[in-house]
Amino acid sequence: xxxxxxxxxxxxxxxxxxxxxxxxxxxxxxxxxxxxxxxxxxxxxxxxxxxxxxxxxxxxxxxxxxxxxxxxxxxxxxxxxxxxxxxxxxxxxxxxxxxxxxxxxxxxxxxxxxxxxxxxxxxxxxxxxxxxxxxxxxxxxxxxxxxxxxxxxxxxxxxxxxxxxxxxxxxxxxxxxxxxxxxxxxxxxxxxxxxxxxxxxxxxxxxxxxxxxxxxxxxxxxxxxxxxxxxxxxxxxxxxxxxxxxxxxxxxxxxxxxxxxxxxxxxxxxxxxxxxxxxxxxxxxxxxxxxxxxxxxxxxxxxxxxxxxxxxxxxxxxxxxxxxxxxxxxxxxxxxxxxxxxxxxxxxxxxxxxxxxxxxxxxxxxxxxxxxxxxxxxxxxxxxxxxxxxxxxxxxxxxxxxxxxxxxxxxxxxxxxxxxxxxxxxx
Length: 427
Known about the structure:
Order of helices and strands: HHHHHHHHHHHHHHHHHHHH
Largest sheet: none
Helix content: over 70%
Low-confidence stretches: none
Shape: globular
Distance between the termini: 43 Å
Mean pLDDT: 84
Number of strands: 0
Radius of gyration: 22 Å
């Protein structure tokens, strides 16, 4: 009864184009009033949801990514990748994907990756002979890798909700993230095989490649420091986020020298604003999940799912993917994780599925959601750069989404892909 009101009001507010976080909060309060649940629980939930130590990683990773973006690292990574592979037939498109993978290991955010790289790479792809619609679609999809290759804010959130090891999640995300990049490259090669307009860039000399590498070295070193420190046990993921921010300041002020006190102030304010949005979503989603828990929906859903699947994990995972893909079309990853993890993870646990592998499954689904309408945040970011509408991208984004779905199926039904590195490193 209460859950029906909760989801009904939430759906109505979404139809009325109310922001998702606001819709989560309003629907939760209405359901609590109808269900005679004390509103006094709200401040307790707000404090509990926002005071977890692991969540401190979010503002620091956001700040570190913003600092490195402002420091000009994106241009240097692009120059290095172009010097290495830009001379091949699909060189500029490959540069787009490769640099997105590197930048993902700095920013940890899909939209941030698209915003930082798209303003350079989308015009470069158009100049190289790609249609502007395909260039925008590919850049938007490449940005989705930002939430899979660590460090990832999405992994931090999943760890906080499910209790999974965030460090282990970071390890598990590397291979699926690289697989997504490979899928995008293969898709691009297949899609452009009959394009006569492609114009490769001149091949760089060994000296030019070395110079480009030296310029990009400090940016390439950042993920090595962050991930190497976590995996070596030097610091926790939360501490690694603080190290990333300090390292970004060092590089921005003393190496690339593109930062000053005025810019730093703007970056801190911007990062605080972005963090505030995420924390508001977390609090609102926690309220939503609390109502679901009080109404015992998770238990009912678990029993129902076990009954209709007959305990068959293959069918359950297929249903999970459908649910998550639909959720990714209408809500952001943080909201989806807070709402769906308490429902889906207990069922997966009953079926013997690994908590880390299930987290990668969920996050890959939600990464694909970044490029699926109507709430494809990466698409909106890419289209704002290209000055085109999302409907113009449908023909180009569809094969790209299909290539990512292939990766999703592999990650879903071969969990060893996600668990290979954690097990190799003894986690």
